[in-house]
Amino acid sequence: MKPASEDCSVTTQPPPQTGSAAGSVRTLPLDLPAFLTREQHRIHLVGVAGSGMSGIAALLLELGHTVSGSDKVSTTETDRLQRLGLRFHEQHRPEDASPADVIVFSSAIKSDNPILGSARDAGKSIVRRAEALAAIMRSKRGIVIAGMHGKTTTSAMTAHVLREGGLHPSHYVGAEIPILGTNAHWDPRGEYFVAEGDESDGTIALFHPEHTLILNIEEEHLDFYADLDAIEKVFAQLIAQTAGKIFYNVDDENAARLCRSFTRGISYGFGETADYRAVDIQLKDFASTFRVNHRGQDLGEATLNVPGQHNIHNALGVIALASELGIAFEKIAKSLAKFEHARRRFEIKYDSPRFLLVDDYGHHPTEIRATLKTARSVGRKRVLTMFQPHRYSRTKALRKEFGRAFDDAHRVVVTDVYASNEAPIPGVTGQMIADEIVAHGHPGVSYEPRLEWVHRAVGNVLESGDLVLSLGAGNIHDQLSALAADLVIAEKLKDIVGEDGEVCLYEPLSKHTTLRVGGPAQFWVEPRNEKAFAELIRFCRDENLPLFVMGRGSNLLVRDGGIRGAVVHPCGGDFDKIEINGVEITAGAGAKLKEVAYAGKAARIGGLEWLEGIPGTVGGGLRMNAGAMGAQTFENVVLVRYLDANGEAHTKTRDELEVYYRNFPLLEKNFAVSAVFRGAPAPLEEIVRKLEASQEKRRTSQPAARSAGCIFKNPDACSAGKLVDELGLKNLSVGKARVSEVHGNFIVNDGGATAAEMLELIEKIKATARAKRGIELETEVQIVGEPG
Ligand code: EPU
Question: Which residues line ligand 1 (CB under 6 A)?
Fold first, then answer.
């Protein structure tokens, strides 16, 4: 092993200084290119899990070094590298790095990192990631792909085309590229090294490539650069250090201005002045075709299987470069047609006739506009976007541009900022971006600060024909994946309930309960007939998906976190049917009990008038043996039809059923389909009188405000309402939940109450009844779901 020696020449120039660890870096005199590519050493990488660092680790392993690395997280990438020989440590401990001759560190690592500290004390060579990359590149004929947008795609495309062209290039790109196999690869057979240059911290000025490809230049990374001038200076240095040709996008104003005067410049673009020009462009859903013209000469047609006009520009740059390297156009065109996208670049996560879910890494306004333009051109009905701003500094600096970037989205849900390695800036949140988009005049914007709820906000407004796009460089794609996973199930549920039925994702149950509280149902499903209901039961059983059946939600308190699994609401179709046969009324589980009472009136069937006062459905009334006016459901029910846990239908007569006060155990694990109610012939006047008595009783003794009916079962000795009244608890409130002043057994929602408030109030009442009367109140209202 050759130690770093004094007589080796220094070939790296001092890296530009940043606010992180750079201030403390010492680069010892060292022929770094030879050290890294012609010798074999022990090298430790600090922050090895980062996307750029893992590429360096892969190259160093392929170059035969003994490589160790540390990071506070392990990733699938570090797992893969471990299989290739990386010694990985999930902590930054100096002793793990002490055998190393050189330390390479990521720009995300702070200067007080213990490994950097101890390496400094030991006088070791410490190099930045970009320095290591620049040094590795110097031992080959370097090709740098630079620019603000499209670097990863274009560098991957370049490596792919050169590889197919038989040039055996080595490569280093910023993301996992399926078609290349890995994000970095050292090929000893080839002369070229293709690398994505990172302009974010000025380190592209470290490169001395043979050729440079400049995609575009604009204001970005304003945490590091003062302005566009400062950015252009760094690009100008890269250009000056390029020995061969400069390929540049002539349609990008800044790139063109900077490169035009350069004698070895080769331009590409759509305009007539371009050396390599695309004509006859045809944009399709996920592809495009165009002809390529080189200084007036037609080279042939190219097909690109990655969408968007911006990718035609990227491909033109690659065509220009590969042509100048001597690869025949036919060969270039053939390999371009095979090129697949990098991960997180318009990556299709879910595709069905009803929905298309796409993830994109776009986090700069220009990228967002380009991606949304592509999304629009796909031709789906609407484009719904979930956006996670990336870095506080960018959010603040480009907020106006972000405000104008979403014109092509029908709906935008913005979540909070992904910090990356930045500390928060006071007042800078996702709300700032949402406000800017609104101020720009966009009608469909909302802010959801909780990242884990973003998929719900988008999923709940989803309609057949929509394209959903997740945008951002942080972890917003997890939300798209969560939506995709639920959509797989939702689509199967939709197939079960058919065209007539309804399936919604994340339906707020506050819309479906009389109390108007409750979080969302993961899957809200409305079957219209017994067959679909039975099939749903079997599907949920087979998929291990929780199933909860809900009627009108009149005796229900759903917690704020909502209900996981399928919430089945049998309604419409067969479930709303009411049929009269003599003195018997057959009613579907979704029919309202009130309607049964009125059907009785129409057919002169008495004895059912009390049902007028029950706000629920037949299914709900059966489930809890609801009662009013001294009567209860099973005094009138003579037959129940239900589905068992396997979806099999059964019919039972009243004498076969076990029924208790506010409790019908059969429906704890089975599901009501319909019931037959029996009354007795009665004169109309008598029926009307009883109906009016019931209405009068409700009007005078019960609140009209939003409630779930009686909250507690009546204890043996007394009425719960009377008890609460006597305890002086009327009007007691928690937040917007309040004990009704009309009836002590009702809790009313004064507007916007939460389930948590309701539950706290219930507990207070129970505690008082226990303490003062020794009575254990039992809730009659059904409490379900997850805490918020
Ligand atoms: N009372 C008070 N103060 C109050 C409430 C009631 O003094 O704040 C007295 C009443 O004056 C009456 C007695 O308590 O003397 C019983 O009250 P009520 O007649 O209203 O009957 P309840 O037992 O409280 C039951 C059902 C109601 C149903 C009514 C009317 C239960 C738990 N409640 O109420 O059902 O509407 O009878 O028939 O069985 C429901 O189940 O959700 C429901 C509202």
Answer: 613, 626-629, 697, 701, 709-710, 713-714, 719-722, 725, 743-745, 780
